[in-house]
# Entry
Amino acid sequence: EVQLVESGGDLVQPGGSLRLSCTASGFTFSASAMHWVRQASGKGLEWIGRIRSNAETYATAYAASVKGRFTISRDDSKNTAYLLMNSLKIEDTAIYYCARHVSDRTTIGDYWGQGTLVTVSS
Amino acid sequence: QSALTQPASVSGSPGQSITISCTGTSSDVGRYNYVSWYQQHPGKAPKLMILEVSNRPSGVPDRFSGSKSGNTASLTISGLQAEDEADYYCSSYTSSSSLYVFGTGTKVTVL
# Structure
């Protein structure tokens, strides 16, 4: 069974940093690209970024709203993807989901985690 | 990159058909056949319902169908059921550096 479990969400002050983890099981993680998507309370989904597999040189891409502040990485030996968030702003407050890229398709998310809550507040 | 435009809400009675529109631009919906649709129940993660405009993943009922014309994609739910009440989001690949864009979301209410 495919599972994605996010962790690391917390309350952090503006300007602070936080690292989220997404631990995968039930599939060949190393062969899959992974996405991060966020959702502010009562708002819509926002794509944050994705990291490709080793076969595609771990290429990353980011939304303009987080580029230069957020970094996606992965450790295939731990079946885990990471989202490092720096210079956090109040508007970064949201539930953060990781999602598996649909294999051989240009589509986000045939599987999603349950999300982890990040709150940026003083 | 602006969000794709969806109606805020759509409603229908059980058994009826409803259609949700998703309007983008020639840089996203109009350029690529990479439109997908997601269903999200309150407090839950999104679930992929349609990919590549009209393809259903395994396990998704054939009551759900997708289409596209120009810069507008559509999701149709036929034979509406109570469990279809949820928020629905479209998404498209885009030629901008922000590779993917989501729609504004539509709340579907089953009357």
In short: The mean pLDDT of chain A is 96. Chain A touches chain B through 26 residues (CB under 8 Å).
